[in-house]
Task: structure prediction
Amino acid sequence: MIVDLRSDTLTKPTKKMLQAMMIAEVGDDVFGEDPTINALQDKMASMFGMEAALFVPSGTMANQIAIKVHTKPGDEVICDQLSHIYNYEGGGIAFNSGASVRLLQGDRGIFTAEQVKAAIQGNDSHLAQSRLVVIENTVNKGGGSIWSLEKIKKIKTVCVEHGLKLHLDGARLFNALVENGEETFDYGKIFDSISICLSKGFGTPIGSVIIGDKAFIQQAHRYRKIFGGGMRQAGFVAAAGIYALDNHLPMLKRDNDNAKLMSEWLKDTSNVTGIMPVESNIVIFNLDPKITTSIFLEKLEEKGILAYPFGPTSIRFVSHLDISDEQMKHLEKSLKSLE
Ligand SMILES: *Cc1c(COP(=O)(O)O)cnc(C)c1O
Result:
């Protein structure tokens, strides 16, 4: 039995999802004429109580477009040192937007309003001008840590005081929302733009959505074209997104609960020395330095368990839609018998 915990992007579309895709009505989306994409965009915008949304091929493109709209070359983006936009988007902030970055040292990716305030650079011709703050929720590299709305609101206040825009990299936002019971509307009220991945916990094959006001989305639409992300009859793919929002959203809680089970089992697994607190569907754990990540990964692989190296002595498990109860049982047994 294979239990693939490398990422929640590994899910394959279910039969029912494929059926929904097959019967989608489509049109040319560059002309704005794909009814299924329009329906997905409207659905997402209204979920968040925001004016408009835009379907894009990837989460990276969603974030990069948002950064591009909010900044000019020479501006500065404030984000956490662990953030995906900084670490895992190929230096895209510099490449696409010509902006510089000021990194904050948060707690597992979660920083404070005071830290933002201290990092802001104003109107001095020597300095890069702070223009945008980016929050990630949940924080991938923070072990799936979850922000509280209260902290976000305090940061919003600082942003308003200093004329900064606020973007949410909400690749896994819904893993946070099903956990803490907060509402999409609360997020829609605070952020200038939000990106959501449909190909993570939702289990669709392709796609992300950016949400914002009409003026923002109009600009985003232009940059999507320039970045090469204008698609034609992509409603076949958007149909998977609509299907997932209707059917897979409640299942995210199961992913979070499974991750908690995994962390319980890891406590008794040999060579595991520490586990980051598990708040959503990601488990990052540390190994005894005597055993290297690659040896530990090999031991796991012998039992059919695939995981992702997350540093010289740490490993990441991600729970997702395609992990069955039988696979969970196999994982429990395997971790307990690991030497
Ligand atoms: C996955 C992810 C993205 C988008 O990555 P893609 O590979 O482009 O889908 C953005 N932010 C975070 C936090 C992510 O985990």
User: Anything to note?
Assistant: The chain has two domains: 3-9+250-336, 15-247. The two ends are 19 Å apart (CA to CA). Residues 58-60, 63, 84, 136, 140, 169, 171, 197 surround pyridoxal-5'-phosphate (CB under 6 Å).
